[in-house]
Write a structure and sequence with these properties.
By secondary structure, this protein is α/β, with parallel strands linked by helices. It is built from 14 helices and 17 strands. Helix 12 runs antiparallel to helix 14 (546-561). It is globular.
Length: 571
């Protein structure tokens, strides 16, 4: 829309959603900071879609995520709920009471080294109570601090990250963090384990009013709000929180887009039957209820299956990750998310959230799958047509929705984004007169190459595609996951590795309305039907009744039938 950014408000619900969100916001922040010696590139993505400007109590301009996040008591570590950006020691010290004071000070969590690093790189809390932060490029943020040496960011080590706030490098607004104090993040007791518990959280006036107040604060300052993106844990009670939150958004903000990303941590073990059964039930209830109130729902996981039987995690040719570490899994999912959300974050000719959803969710298909190639395997001497030809006829991306092997499935509609390739690589570099290896080599623009390739792969599929020069940033504290065969820009090397750390990568990402969901949702129904719910009375005690389960099974069957391969665009 002319005249301003089409804003998006992000909701992060749950602790794994916090991990994915922390990487996501770190990547957005890294994209704002351009090296002074970098070649000038067009600003293809509009950061104002996700960020908001503001001012501290001392008049300093800030640039913070337009974000509401909910997590449990004990999940923030040393991060303060009200954040440090707007803190004012002078006001803190203004106490009206003149009598004797007794101070009871809670023991502080030790700061993670990455937060200490953040303070040294981005600013300090001065003795006068003013937080002096370094500037954000392109006119965003306060005046730059001048320092003799800018410290290099620390590189995270395995096991050094326990919560998402340990590596979040972005300052949050005081209205962002909403803590659910009645449930604990750690320990065996007081956990938010079941869908019904999550639903009941937002039935309590305390939490409902707090969420509504924060929504109104952010929404009322938007000029062209296009919608909401929800990052929501599916495996625990936050699936119920997400269901109620999406219902609230649908009721209060009718006509706005609501795109929900249902997040599941890496592969699990069979060691805890109750935990696995709860995960299955929460995922099923979450998918059905979220799809009822969202424009689009996409499960995101590096696991191979949504069911009870563990499947190996997905593989990427040039990534070496530990599937048991949320820090690793969430980084990969955030990179995919940073790519597939490109259409509604573009500076020019953006596709609104509503239009993107409408393209993919026809005939009741409100659940979609995600896939990505991380990084896109382009060699230094290759062109885009060369690489696409090498990928062959198979699906060119790895599934990230725990739907199993995609072979033999069909796609009804897809939105595809390829980013991070230099313009010189977009088309064939063959010498004139050389026989063309494929029709792709005859295309005159990169956009034409990508569209032609998708047409060849899926001739009858409704496809939308975008090609961007802007890569995905993967600087610390993004984990070091990349094979030694990649260059600093994420290209596959012909020569021996240089030893330079990978700082950015090209990525191919896709959202697909796929028939693989027919099998995946159908398998969920089969597994749920076999359950003896008398053994899991505690799940039902949390607020779900037997009739709710019967209704769930029927809704899942109906949803699965939408993805039978016989469907067509005209159905």
């Amino acid at each position: 829309m002319a005249g301003g950014a089409r804003e998006v408000l992000t909701l992060q619900l749950g602790h794994f959603a916090g991990f994915v969100g922390a990487h996501w916001w770190n990547q957005q922040d890294a994209a704002l900071h351009k090296p002074t010696d970098a070649q000038e590139q067009p600003e293809e993505l509009c950061p104002d879609v996700l960020f908001r400007t503001g001012q501290t109590l001392h008049g300093q301009e800030t640039y913070t995520p337009r974000l509401i996040l909910m997590d449990l008591k004990g999940s923030l570590s040393s991060l303060k709920q009200e954040s440090g950006l707007y803190r004012d020691k002078q006001l803190d010290a203004a106490i009206a009471w003149q009598g004797k004071l007794t101070t009871h000070k809670e023991e502080l969590y030790p700061k993670n080294p990455y937060l200490q690093d953040l303070l040294s790189v981005e600013g300090v809390l001065s003795s006068d109570g003013i937080w002096r932060v370094k500037s954000i490029p392109n006119g965003k943020g306060p005046t730059t601090l001048t320092t003799a040496i800018t410290p290099e960011p620390l590189i995270p080590t395995k096991g050094s990250i326990s919560v998402w706030s340990d590596f979040l490098r972005v300052h949050l607004h005081p209205r962002s963090i909403c803590m659910i104090q009645k449930y604990n993040h750690d320990g065996d007791a007081g956990r938010l384990e079941a869908f019904g518990q999550g639903e009941s959280v937002l039935k309590e006036p305390r939490y409902l009013e707090e969420l509504e107040d924060r929504l109104h604060f952010y929404v009322e300052e938007c000029d062209y709000l296009q919608g909401f993106q929800i990052l929501c844990d599916l495996h625990d009670g936050f699936s119920g929180v997400g269901a109620k939150a999406s219902e609230l958004l649908q009721d209060e903000y009718s006509g706005r887009g609501i795109i929900t990303w249902g997040l599941l941590p890496g592969p699990y073990s069979l060691g805890d039957p109750q935990k696995n059964i709860y995960r299955l039930l929460n995922t099923a209830f979450g998918l059905v209820h979220l799809s009822a109130h969202s424009s689009l729902v996409c499960p995101l996981s590096l696991g191979g299956s949504l069911g009870l039987r563990p499947e190996p995690p997905v593989n990427f040719s040039h990534l070496r990750y530990d599937a048991t570490l949320p820090f690793h899994c969430s980084a990969i999912l955030a990179t995919a998310l940073d790519t597939v959300t490109v259409p509604y974050r573009l500076h020019s000719s953006p596709v609104s959230m509503v239009h993107l959803a409408n393209m993919l969710n026809f005939s009741g298909k409100k659940v979609v799958t995600a896939g990505a190639t991380i990084p896109f395997p382009l060699g230094p001497s290759q062109s885009l047509p060369d690489t696409l030809m090498q990928l062959g006829g198979a699906t060119p991306w790895t599934s990230l929705s725990a739907c199993g092997d995609p072979s033999g499935t069909c796609c009804f509609a897809q939105s595809v984004v390829l980013r991070g390739l230099d313009k010189a690589c977009h088309t064939s570099q063959l010498i004139p007169g050389t026989p063309l290896p494929s029709l792709l080599h005859a295309c005159t623009t990169g956009e034409e190459v990508l569209a032609q390739y998708l047409q060849q792969q899926q001739p009858s599929v409704r496809s939308s595609s975008h090609l961007l020069l802007t890569p995905c940033k993967v600087v610390p504290p993004y984990p070091s996951l990349f094979s030694s065969s990649l260059s600093q820009q994420g290209l596959v090397l012909d020569d021996p590795p240089t030893g330079a750390a990978v700082e950015s990568i090209p990525v191919l990402g896709a959202l697909c309305s796929s028939s693989s969901l027919n099998r995946t949702l159908g398998d969920l129904v089969k597994e749920l039907t076999k359950l003896d719910l008398r053994r899991w009375a505690s799940f039902m005690d949390a607020g779900v009744e037997q009739d709710d389960l019967e209704e769930l099974l029927q809704e899942l069957r109906n949803l699965a039938q939408c993805y039978q391969c016989g469907d067509s665009l005209m159905d």
